Amino acid sequence: MAVEISGEYAGNLKVNMTHGPSGTSLTTAAPVDNQGDGSSFSPTDLVAAALGSCMVTLIAIAAERDGIDCAGLGFSLEKHMSLAPRRVESVPIRIRMPAGLNGKQRTFLERAAMTCPVQRTLRPDFERPVIFDYGS
Known about the structure:
single chain; alpha+beta; three-stranded mixed β-sheet; 3 helices; about 30% strand; globular
């Protein structure tokens, strides 16, 4: 299934984009370290955010399908850039998992996260270590 996304340069190193099916808008801005003002997500920030949100979405799909409560599910990550060539080099991710999961549920949900299409699309040499955080 194809999804149309359109974009238009807005000046000041910003691009306004529209998601065709929903009409939702998003603006990117060049980061401070690349001549921009850093006032919004940069395009490379969106790559990192897509990875984290995709993994959490896949966990939620699997959990909800099996009647597992997703309260507390979320992620945090860091995007690291290389300078030559300028590209996203690594994105370590910490996924905050719901409380009270047994061993079988943990394994099931961790496997679901690793089926993320974004994760599968990225280059094999792209570093993306994942920590599944179950709290204390």
